[in-house]
Amino acid sequence: MAEKEIIIDAIINGEKYKAEKQEPRENPTHPNEIVGYAPVNTVEDTIKAIDVAHETFITWRESSIDDRVERMRRAIQKIKDNTPEIAKLLSREHGKALYDSEGEIGVSLMWMEYACDNVKEVLKNEVQEHDNGKTIIAKDAIGVVSAITPWNYPISLSTIKIAPALLAGNTMVLKPSPLAPLAVSRVVEIIADEFPPGVLNMVHGEADVGVELTSNPKIAKIAFTGGTETAKHIMKAAADTIKHMTLELGGNDAAIILSDFDVNDVRAMRRLVISNFLTAGQICMIAKRVYVDQSIYDQFVEKYIEAANKWIRVGDPFDNNVTVGPVNNQKQAEYVQSLVDDAAGKGAKIVKLGTILDQELFEEGYFMQPTVVLGADQNDPIVVEEQFGPTVPILPFENDQHAIELANDSIFGLTSSVWGKEEHAIDVAKHIQAGTTMINTAAVQGLDVRFPFGGVKQSGIGREYGKEGILAYTDTHVINVPKNRDLPYIPE
Ligand code: NAD
């Protein structure tokens, strides 16, 4: 039986807001099937949402933290209650396997709970009594936050912003990506319903909406997750009105396999494979380049292919046996294929991995058979660019110093991982330029919502998660009551 098409509206001032135009969202597993429709909001709609959020901020910033936490906890419970339905919708519009959608919602809830548990402590005024009187250091809300999010983890990358922003007393206008707009909208509806009208607003649309959200003078902070190229436009758009900014951008994360890595450790090898191919490789923090000590390179490649063939089962996201679904959209699939073809054209060996469970379905949807690329050069696009899909190059290195140089030879610096004996791996990790370096695990397997996450170099500015991820939605406000109010060196 055909599934019901989902119709999503914008949310402005607590009300569903009908846009004049709707955009269909296809199912990447069955591209002829429409999963639902999201609005295509205009710049005028966006200005309305910003105006409402700006007006609401005046009262919302004065609300008590207890009240905010209570509201957020009610939303958390409702998202929990609706997880099966939301996860199913996410898998249909996104293509990620059902376990993966459930995992994304699980991590989102974990973070929202962490933010509720910690916001009071993080925002507590620091009061110092000192030899020159008293100083209060307060953490004030910033104002209207515009949140702009990508398609790959639409729910977690939206809630990562919504929870701390609202709990800290800000209001928000959020814009999801048109490539996965439906399931996240369900989550936003649930949260918005628990808060006063105008606190959390949502508009949908393309770059014109994004430009308004990043240039409107009433926006005080931009919280953006997406590509590095888009972020360059955003920084320019925001320059005229000097906005706060958290930018979570692309990555080209290196995994370094040291000489003392045990190639026969099947659990570790499985973790590495997962850190290359989870969500069909469409994760900012997936291990996108694997560097292996040349002394173990041949054995490593043999065992890696064995592990990959075992774990990778490509097919319908709703088949419990499937680990890798289709790529989210045709353009992305073509881009990834172009990188693989380029490497093959230059003489690299392309090894297909895993099993295709249903050949007919494979040809119908935006599926790609995962591949490993052997013999590519450090300067080839497959190594230099963020592929964001189910393929990974494996390259040898001569010694630890060489591995560090190769890993750092990138404009990106999001996460990275080092695999081998723990102390040795930590020693190497210290020299890598990245926001996070994981030891003997990688990608979301090594993620912990209690600790700050973000990138260095062109992978971003600022941090999400952890206490820093809450503080990112505040500004420091010092209330100073000095005893000596006149400066002695200023003449009478
Ligand atoms: P994207 O940059 O194309 O789009 C992200 C969002 O920006 C979308 O909502 C899009 O509509 C909007 N947008 C487009 N043009 C805009 C403009 N001029 N002004 C304002 N907004 C605009 O990214 P994507 O393809 O959706 O996502 C993939 C990218 O996101 C990858 O590079 C990936 O690494 C990155 N990403 C980073 C993280 C992280 O935490 N660092 C997490 C997930 C994804």
From TrEMBL:
Q: Which domain of life is it from?
A: Bacteria
Keywords attached to this entry = Oxidoreductase
Fetch the Pfam families from UniProt.
Aldedh
Residue numbers annotated as active site: 248
Q: Which family is this protein grouped under?
A: Belongs to the aldehyde dehydrogenase family.
The reply to whether Ligase figures as a keyword in the UniProt entry is no
Q: Which InterPro entries match?
A: Ald_DH/histidinol_DH, Ald_DH_C, Ald_DH_CS_GLU, Ald_DH_N, Aldehyde_DH_dom
GO MF term list = oxidoreductase activity, acting on the aldehyde or oxo group of donors, NAD or NADP as acceptor
Q: Does the keyword Magnesium apply?
A: no
Which segments constitute the Aldehyde dehydrogenase domain? 22-478
The cross-references to Gene3D superfamilies, in alphabetical order and at most eight, read:
Aldehyde Dehydrogenase, Chain A, domain 1 (3.40.605.10), Aldehyde Dehydrogenase, Chain A, domain 2 (3.40.309.10)
From the Swiss-Prot or TrEMBL record, give the protein name. Aldehyde dehydrogenase family protein
- Tell me which species this is from: Gracilibacillus thailandensis
